[in-house]
Amino acid sequence: DLATRQRHLAGFDDDLEHLASLGYEHELKLVPREDIHSVVGSDRYIGGLIDMGSGHLHPLNLALGEARAAASLGVSLFEHSRVTHIDYGKQVEVTTAHGRVTADYLVIGCNAYLNDLNPDLGGKVLPAGSYILATEVLDRRLRQRLLPQNMAVCDQNVALDYYRLSADGRLLFGGACNYSGRDPKDIKAF
Whole-structure pTM over 0.90, yes or no? Predict the structure, then answer.
């Protein structure tokens, strides 16, 4: 985690103390401004918090892995089956455009777009847009200068930036977060 403001650094102190009080097992280390280049090749940041229990993930690969694990446990998955209504009772009945499914248990996997399927849950989910780009494969020396420890990093701003190196040496950079639920008309310009 990278700080661009003093209050971010104060937050890192609080995070460190809180995680330690919980018996957090992973290494945590505050990085002062004078050592920030050991983590990231930028003068933009005034400090950081290394958390060896955190990182970035590939959301699609995570979802595919979760689906494989669920299927291996006997779970039935119904992709491309737009749900139009859910009746909650002794058993859950799910109505789609092409039929109905009855089940003892239901897992709703709708991202933030639940419409009126489950108003209680829908009222607790905030749609967040984030956009990712990948560079061409970068020279090894440049990769070493940008992220000397090959860590996944993010800043603490509301519209945060986050980035890491891919296995093949590209910089994957994400950010431009918005919370409107609508993608910009021109993502490149945004």
Answer: no
